[in-house]
Amino acid sequence: MPPAVGGANPPTHPRTHWPAVLAAAFCGVAAAMNVGKVPVSLPLMREEFGLSLVQAGWVSSTLTTLAVVSALAIGLLAGRVGALRMVVTGLLLSAAGSVAALGASGFAGLIVSRLVEGAGFLFVSVAAPALVSAAAAPQDRRFALGVWSSYMPMGAGTAMALAPWLLPQGGWQALWLAAATVLLLAAAAAWRQRACYAPTQGTTHAAAPAPQALAVLRQPLTWLLTLSFGLWAMQHFALIIWMPTFLKEQRGLAPGLVAGLTCAMLLVNVPGNLIGGALVQRGVPRGRLIAAAHTVTGLCGWGLFSDALPDGLRFALCVGLSFCGGVIPAAVMSSSTVLARSPAQINALQGMIMQGSQLGQFVGTPLIAAVVAASGQWSSARWVTAGAALLGMLLGLAAMRQESRLGHTASP
Questions:
Q1: 286: burial class by Cβ within 10 Å (0-12, 13-18, 19+)?
Q2: What are the angstrom distances between the C-alpha of 391 and each of 252, 273, 335?
């Protein structure tokens, strides 16, 4: 299929309705809180429920596992149901899952609640970009999707920032209730802006057959961008699982300080997302941004896992990796403006991107664990992150050539 010059083509507003764009982004932030709340709460949950390390790992990774096997299918479902219905349903499901966990009596109950939360998270993360596109004018759409791309670090970072305040007062249950409250607020905010999302609810795209929606996946650029995003996720997730362990077990820092430093590392990804969105808006090729970002994150990752460097410099490299890598989600997620012809194709594309991202985490975590276990040193993880960065850089260069051939940089 030839590229969709001008991007997806539902009726749009002559001017960007920024409250509606921000409401859709808020939905993503709320859903991502269910990702960030778990790592900081697992010690308390293990103590209360007597969870083994393996069981705790499943509580943490259930969402990722669900996304790896079903994100694309959920994207197709969103194209049939309608993006707004999908997002609101996802937020309500996520809130219900959070509340259900409060009544869990053991491992099985926690897993069921996480499955419900995970389904809700996927509904939101796959369908909300179509809401952003509908509320944004063509000239602003790339930047608006760059704003959307910050939902994951913002949401996970917010949950981690709340943890030092809520966990001592009300345990993990307080953090779960806070997440459920934010999810309900996000659902209300999205529903209030429903008039701005009307193009995503039309019967024409809702009835679009799967082959038409999947046609967007025939473009090589789709695969190059998706794989490059997965390789970035592998690097970032390596940092997320390494940093709290290093700060707590090897440096003996207090849990609150560990959460604060990890949260700062996550949140600095957000300005990277916004800068990435602004650069794409200015016409900088996505492939160039991806190749440059992977080069920098690879160098930062190599340094931060070096035991020879002082802790201050290693933390600065963590921040640098998260900040510079932030342009990658913005570059990839905004590609629906040039690759997709309809809201149904936006949903399919975002499902594919989400599946690639989660696959990077899913593969990267055991790979890093195996490398570290074999060597007995965390510094060995640099080989995984450096390899992922090198492959990501090559994919970015290939994407840049593909963009040049197809003329995508001139598209809205």
A1: buried
A2: 35, 21, 20
Q: What is the pTM of this model?
A: 0.84
* Those residues with Cβ within 8 angstroms of residue 49's Cβ, 6 or more apart along the chain or in another chain: 104, 106, 107, 110
pLDDT for 407 beyond 80: no
What is the tens place of the pLDDT at every residue in 281-328? 998 999 999 999 999 999 999 999 888 899 899 999 999 999 999 999
* Alpha-carbon separation of residue 200 from 75, 79, 91 (angstroms): 13, 9, 17
Nearest CA-CA partner of 272 in 412, 147, 136: 147
CB atoms within 10 A of CB 313: 12
345 touches 215 (CB < 8 A): yes
For the four alpha carbons of 397, 402, 407 and 412, in that order, the dihedral sign comes to: negative
pLDDT in tens, 213-272: 777 788 899 999 999 999 999 998 888 877 877 787 778 888 778 888 888 998 999 999
Residue 357, classed as helix, strand or coil, is helix
Per-residue CA distances from 199 to 9, 10, 11, 139, 204 (Å): 10, 6, 6, 17, 10
DSSP 236-277: HHHHHHHHHHIIIIIT---HHHHHHHHHHHHHTHHHHHHHHH
Domains in the chain with CATH codes? 18-410 (1.20.1250.20)
Q: How far apart are CA 107 and CA 49, in angstroms?
A: 7
Burial environment of residue 212 by CB neighbours within 10 A (0 to 12, 13 to 18, 19 or more) = middle
Q: At what angle do helices 343-375 and 83-101 cross, to 10 degrees?
A: 40
DSSP code at position 102? T
